[in-house]
Each structure stands twice: as C-alpha cells, then as structure tokens.
Amino acid sequence: MHIAVSGNIGVGKTTLTKVLAKNFNWQPHYESVEDNPYLDNFYTDMQRWAFNLQIYFLNSRFGQLKQIQNSGKNIIQDRTIYEDAHIFAPNLHSMGLMNARDFNNYSSLFQLMASFVNPPDLLIYLRASVPTLVKQIQTRGRDYESSIRIDYLNRLNERYEAWISEYSLGKLLIIDTDNIDFTKNEDDVSFIVNKVNTEINGLF
C-alpha cells in the first residue's frame, strides 16, 4: 500500500509522515531536502536554478516511486512527483523563472516517467492558509527558506487548490490544518489517524 502526503511548503508534510508512519507501522520515504545540492542556490537566484532544481526533484521522486513499487511494503511518502509537475514547475514558468524551452523539456520528461509508475492508493492533502505556512516556516528556521516571498506561497496555494479540485488518480483525503496542531496535540493526532484509518479500510 502506498500513501502519500502532499501540500505547500511548511504545511507539515514531513511531520505528518512521521506521525502516521509510527501509528500505522508504515515505512516512511522523505523528501530529499538536507542533501539537495540546489535548494540554497534556488532561493538565492530562482531564475538561474529553477530548471536544475525541478530536474533534481523529478529524478529523486521517480527513484523513490520505483523503490516503493518494488518494496512490497506499506509505504508513506512525503510529497509526490505530481506536485512538481502540476504546481512547482508551471508556477516557475508562469513567473518567468523557467523559460518555455526548459518547461516543455521538463513536462515531456515528466509525462514519460509518470507512465512507468503508479499513483498512490491514498493521497492526503494538507491545506493551510498562507499566514499558517509563514508561521511554520519561520518556526522551523531553515536558512534557505528565509527569503521565500508571501506572493510565491500564495501562487503555490492557488495551484494546489486547482490541482486538488481535479485530482482523480486515486482516493483523496483533505485535511485543513489552520486550526489543528498534530505536532503537539494528541487529540489532533487521533483525529487525523481516525480519518486516515477510515480511508485505508476502504482500500481493501
């Protein structure tokens, strides 16, 4: 079984992945962040490094998906390959930070890769307002995220909502996170665990 957690920067994907992996005894697969060789450069000069970063993520997540499919285990994944293709790359293109040639090349490569992998059995989408995202980004204090602009987060949120409104690859669970705290509040953890449990029971 393959569960994936999606959502904007700072929404809590990694934290929820850890929480659910522990509660359901799933094997977690995390987004490659700390060892990503492009993130610092990207947030310093988005136009120069946008294509490089997106290709890195595409390659990394495609490799993850192949491992997941071949593992025969119950896996929970932090962020999906679809978010890069439907949200981040198009956003960079529309902002003029990725030119048409690079964007078309990226999109063609994604379509090819996507034909070789299966979508998750359940997609969990974490929804949050921009003030919540900003607060959580500031709290975790990653240096390379200190220059993220509010308008950039707004654009991403709009694209996430558009993508989710048309998502049809598998089961979908949407969780609004503005008024819950699954990092500290056990009641909120139980609330989410129960929701997920209901959804995965329907997979069999």
Brief summary of the model shown:
57% of the residues lie in helices and 12% in strands. The chain is α/β, with parallel strands linked by helices.
Describe this entry's structure for a reader.
- This protein has 204 residues and is α/β, with parallel strands linked by helices.
- The protein is globular, with a radius of gyration of 17 Å.
- The mean pLDDT is 91.
- The longest helix has 26 residues.
- The chain contains 8 helices and 5 strands.
- The protein has one domain: 3-Layer(aba) Sandwich (Rossmann fold).
- The N and C termini lie close together (10 Å).
Q: What topology emerges from the helices and strands here?
A:
Layout: E1 2-7, H1 13-24, E2 27-29, H2 39-44, H3 46-71, E3 75-78, H4 81-94, H5 100-114, E4 122-127, H6 130-140, H7 150-165, E5 171-176, H8 186-201
Parallel strand pairs: 1-3, 1-4, 2-3, 4-5
Helix pairs in contact: 3-4, 3-5, 4-5, 4-7
What's the Cα radius of gyration? 17 Å
Overall residue-averaged pLDDT value: 91
Q: Which term fits the overall shape?
A: globular
Q: What's the total number of strands?
A: 5
The CATH class turns out to be Alpha Beta
Give the low-confidence spans: none
Largest beta sheet: what is the strand line-up?
Answer: 2-3-1-4-5
Class by SSE composition:
alpha/beta
